[in-house]
TrEMBL record:
Domain of life: Bacteria
InterPro entries: Flavodoxin_dom, Flavoprotein-like_sf, Protoporphyrinogen_IX_DH
Lineage: Bacteria, Pseudomonadati, Pseudomonadota, Alphaproteobacteria, Hyphomicrobiales
Domain Flavodoxin: start-end pairs: 4-152
UniProt protein name: Protoporphyrinogen oxidase
Amino acid sequence: MPILVLYATVEGHSRKIAEHAANQLEELGHSVIVGDVREPGFAIPGRFDGVLLCAPIHMGRYPDAMVRFLRDWKDALEAVPTALISVTLGIHSENAEERAEAEGFPAKLERKTGFRPRRIHHAAGALKFLEYDFFKRMLMRQISASEGGPLDTGKDHEFTDWAALDAFVQEIADDIALAGKG
Ligand SMILES: Cc1cc2nc3c(=O)[nH]c(=O)nc-3n(C[C@H](O)[C@H](O)[C@H](O)COP(=O)(O)O)c2cc1C
């Protein structure tokens, strides 16, 4: 059975991470279905060997569509190996409190939905200055300044550690292989 890679995104970076992870899983010999959690019509958990979820934090919250999906499907998800990639800028911050807050988002998600992923990876996201409107650009520049991040709004800045992501994807593949033997 294939692996379901499901993402939520506002500015596209979590989709990029999800697609990168999906390609990696395919290179490891798995068949993969990638879907946007907002779009109806993706197949249902229970038909998959494993489910990888990828979602960003915006203003301290994961997108509502992901929260709803996890609430609705948590029982089916518990039957297979699952993993969550939590995408934040906080995890990349120079400020230890910001990093600790970022590390705490999956536990908050679990309290909200009852869903506990078997594995969690924290991926640093991106500052998409070129895509933000004026006010968002100013807000994000200010936040970036307070966290010791880049201030050049003339380009996007990406902080994702792709090698660390690949290592995490390998762990997921190992989980799925082990579950298949059980
Ligand atoms: C309006 C806005 C609010 C954000 N709020 C947070 C936040 O509360 N904590 C955090 O760590 N990152 C925050 N971020 C950073 C995003 O998680 C990061 O930009 C991520 O790459 C967005 O992923 P997406 O492109 O899939 O939407 C915020 C970004 C934006 C644009």
